[in-house]
Q: What sequence folds into this?
């Protein structure tokens, strides 16, 4: 079942809104987000975690930085 939550796609990278539960991190709506993870799509359905536990501004900066390879 697909996860529901806020995702922004910037320069081909996916920023996912996340929140922490008692056992693990789960996707969240933007209004519920405690932090953001940045992923790169690899293949058809896979995502590779690049950075985690960022603020939204830091996640955007990461995606917009020229050093980020897609």
A:
């Amino acid at each position: 079942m697909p996860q529901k939550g806020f995702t922004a796609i910037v320069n081909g990278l996916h920023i996912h809104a996340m929140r922490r539960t008692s056992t693990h991190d789960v996707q969240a709506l933007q209004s519920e987000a405690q932090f953001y993870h940045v992923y790169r799509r690899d293949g058809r359905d896979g995502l590779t975690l690049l950075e985690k536990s960022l603020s939204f501004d830091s996640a955007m900066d990461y995606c917009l930085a020229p050093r980020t390879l897609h």
